[in-house]
Design goal:
Blueprint lengths: L1 E2 L34 H10 L1 E2 L8 H13 L2 H7 L2 H5 L9 H16 L4 H17 L7 H27 L4 H20 L4 H4 L5
Antiparallel strand pairs: 1-2
Helix pairs in contact: 2-7, 2-8, 5-6, 5-7, 5-8
Length: 204
Amino acid sequence: MTALPGRRWSVESPAGAPDGLPLPGRFAHLHPDDGACLMEAAALLASGRFTDSPSGTHPALAALARVVNDSVGDGARQALWPLAADLADAHPPGRDYAPLLVGTVVDAAHLVRPSSRPLARYGRACRRRAEATAHASAAGAAARTADLLWWRGPGRRHLEHALRVLCAAPDAEQRLSGLLRRAVAQAREYTDGGSPGRELSCNR
């Protein structure tokens, strides 16, 4: 990770985005002079450090944002650029957030491929995980370890499979952009004290 000096970039940020951000680009970058992905921009806003995995963003949401950033065209990427400000502080505290988010992406992919048995199975698994953790305490090493193991194992696999399906859809750019916008709005609401159950759901 690179700590950046206190300076502003000379490029003009897309409309609606905070001033001084690097140019939006695909994939990770070595330095902001080369551009930035959406999560790198969020990290700069959050802490001034250049990384695509800022601590202020939930890992599952960051993973979704990275794939969307890299999968859409230049125009759509610029349109998503203002989301960096909300992504900079989007880390819902509940243990059920990650399976709810992954389940939402799985359900979106299931709409593209309704006959997919793996997607149906992943959706059920996410719902079970969300229900099991909805009111469970997040305190203690055991809970943190269990959540980390789920995210780095089945959670990430379910998300990656669903995103491959969405990226192959004829209208992938529209679906991915809309999905990320909704996910960011819901994460911010949840982070600010709302309940994920009102908006964020995986219950096809």
